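Most newcomers find our protein records easier to grasp once they have seen one. Read left to right, the backbone structure tokens trace the chain's path through space. Nothing more is needed to start thinking about how sequence determines fold. An example says more than a description, so a record of this kind follows:
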Amino acid sequence: MHAMAEKASPMPMVEPIAQPVVLDVNGVSKSFGANTVLRDISFKVHRSETVCLLGPSGSGKSTLLRCINWLEEPDGGTVLLGGRRIGVRPGTNLRMTDRDLAAIRTRIGMVFQHFALWPHMTVLQNVMEAPVHVLKRDKREVRKEAEALLRRVGLADKMDSFPARLSGGQKQRVGIARSLAMKPDLILFDEPTSSLDPELVGEVLTVMQDLAREGLTMVVVTHEMSFARDVASRVVFMDKGQIVETGNPDQFFRTPQTERARQFLARYAARDR
């Protein structure tokens, strides 16, 4: 894996309207007791887009990801994956059965902040586990695909290692390979570099940049402004549980349209000086 020492070349802009809608979030709201975390969130993600969710800590970004795949149940609004509503039985307002919800979640990959690897399994076993035991696929076929995925993320020499022997960046790359093994329609990244030492951040961002170039559909919560600027096809800026501004990264970073976005970007610019 090569480091991210040099500024990544800008990603070619994907024209979203030319691609089918993969994810449609419409009017999603969520509260925890008296604390309203999400307020009427609506946006769409088209195939091959990398949408970066930006905003200060506590703005609701991670909760939004969890509502997308119903790890948190929204209080209101709808979430559609490929036109199919998540969490609610077709033609009703009744909650999906846990079995049906688990089935639709297999189409949504999720990469967490804290890796969530099985400590008693090798790297290869971690990647193979869900395709074999959830999708009931042939073990030999899955093994070949898992080995190829681990080579893809630069971990060909770690297949037989256990997570305890890996660096944080290596663990996160295993997490990415594990998500890819399910061949999802969409991958959600919840601040995938926030738990890493600074020198390990680049190796994970490089893998994600490669996935964006290959046309995977991704929603990424991140505080890595350079990644969002160079890799995103669109950014969504949130504050206090609401979408404040959305647009292509060049427009957002050069000429933000709202005062709140200007304040946010100025803070990051001052920090990076």
In short: DSSP finds nine helices and ten strands in the chain.
